[in-house]
Design brief:
The chain is α+β, with helices and mostly antiparallel strands. The chain has one domain. 18% of the residues lie in helices and 32% in strands. The chain is built from 3 helices and 4 strands; from the N terminus they run H-H-E-E-E-H-E. The chain has a 4-stranded antiparallel β-sheet. The chain starts with 8 loop residues before the first helix and ends with a strand. The mean pLDDT is 83.
């Protein structure tokens, strides 16, 4: 089947709600980002939400990196 559309793939074939339940917005080292829970205190960066170009040049905070974050 060929689907000719300008709509994003995610709107046509949405992910399950369970995938979004593990994600949350946090601020880590002054950078706002969307992370996904791997286990209790470890998270994997999904997306950097900042508009500052310097935040994208930081190798320690790129998407796919695992970080440890303790909720306070």
């Amino acid at each position: 089947m060929i689907l000719y559309t300008m709509m994003p793939y995610d709107l046509i074939y949405p992910c399950e709600n369970e995938a979004f339940g593990k994600q949350k917005l946090i601020t880590y080292e002054g950078i706002e980002m969307l992370v996904e829970s791997v286990d209790g205190q470890n998270y994997q960066i999904v997306r950097i939400m900042s508009t500052d170009p310097q935040h994208y040049l930081n190798d320690a905070c790129c998407p796919g990196t695992k970080i440890s974050f303790v909720n306070t």
